[in-house]
Amino acid sequence: MEDDEEIPQLVDAGGANIARDAQPTTVPLTIICGFLGAGKSTLVKRILSERHGYKIAVIMNEFGDTADIEAKTINVTSTGDTAQQSEEFLELANGCLCCSIKDSGIAAIEKLMQRKGAFDHIVLETTGLADPGPIASLFWQNEEYAMGLGEDIHLDGVVCVVDAVFGRQQMEEDHIDDGIGESLRQIAGSDVILLNKVDLVGATDIEETEEVIRKINPAATIYQTVQAGIDLKNIMGINAYSSRLISQGSAPLHLHMHGDDHSHSHEDRGPTHYEIRGITSMQIVCPPLGPLQFENLDEWIRTVLWESRVPGENDNSSELEILRCKGLFATKGGDLYVLQGVRSLYEIVKVEGEGEEESTGLPGVGKIVFIGKGLGERVRRSLHEILRS
Ligand SMILES: Nc1nc2c(ncn2[C@@H]2O[C@H](COP(=O)(O)OP(=O)(O)OP(=O)(O)O)[C@@H](O)[C@H]2O)c(=O)[nH]1
């Protein structure tokens, strides 16, 4: 790569800035993924052109047709022969910085972070075929990363744009050699899903597509959009990987599962164990845990995530693979814990100072959701026994 070490110049384009804490804080990073042609660039254009008052750095793999967005408000600041350069930076009038890079987004982000303090949020748009899981893992709980970029950046959330016209068909047909195609991995690995282009389909189609999405990922929040029209607060600053802010009305976990409003919502949802092309989700109600149950739960998760087998069984030939897990549960002692996991990485974090149900508004009964492959009845029963032993 030529000019690999050249640091992009960030010009103050006059965009309004938000108040920043006196305390040093890390910059949130949002990953945008989505099906080919679903509307990712449309969403990015919206972020880049809206007068939201934030200085947002958007990183794209390729500019493609995005280079002509709001042409009048964009100044191309790259120097030299752009055809020879593998990266390019654009300054926008609203304070956004647009960065295109052909290879790893990490290199671009490292350069951006040398301009620390110059922006409030980073948006990373992946290509239509990208699986967001490995990218999310890079930014979350990666020890090497934590000692480097992790000091400056934290993963805020993964947003997936789904095509309301072709999305359902794509999900149903998406079946590659290992049984989980990219579109399913994208849905499984996302915290927020924009069901875009709803202007082109009827209400029944929308409902059916949403149903398929919920079957794959019951933990994600779904918004129906036209031209990726979404209030940015619904996709940025969502703290999907945080154990903080739980009592501040911005619950990070989106643990409201489909069907929560129903009277049976405090029951395990065995029958709602879905299977689409090898990918399944399992959500389980978690009663307040004693110390032994807590320890057993931790061991259970470790075994399932790291050894791809159910504790007590030696057979790991069942293709057990966890792509994402989330949970919120209480101990009998009144403490609240959050579980977050991306692939084999996970953490269980105590929610500091928020043990009282009254203060959090959270139910005494917790929930844990796993999304992945091979989550059969056997796995559900095993976890159920651990939690109620
Ligand atoms: N009717 C309609 N068209 C839309 C909507 N959103 C996006 N489009 C159009 O769909 C086409 C694809 O949108 P893009 O934003 O380029 O999609 P993308 O996901 O970035 O595409 P790739 O990068 O190729 O994967 C464009 O022509 C958009 O104008 C929508 O809500 N309704």
Automatic annotation (TrEMBL):
Which UniProt keywords are listed?
A: Chaperone, GTP-binding, Hydrolase, Nucleotide-binding, Zinc
Gene Ontology molecular function: any one: hydrolase activity
Protein name (database record): CobW/HypB/UreG nucleotide-binding domain-containing protein
Q: Would I find Hydrolase among this entry's keywords?
A: yes
- What Gene3D superfamilies has UniProt attached to this entry? CobW-like, C-terminal domain, P-loop containing nucleotide triphosphate hydrolases
According to UniProt, the reaction catalysed is: GTP + H2O = GDP + phosphate + H(+)
- Residue intervals of the CobW C-terminal domain: 290-384
* Keyword Chaperone attached: yes
Family to which the UniProt record says this protein belongs: Belongs to the SIMIBI class G3E GTPase family. ZNG1 subfamily.
CDD domains in the record: CobW-like (cd03112)
Q: Where is the CobW/HypB/UreG nucleotide-binding domain?
A: 28-223
Q: Which organism is it from?
A: Fibroporia radiculosa
Gene Ontology cellular-component annotations: cytoplasm
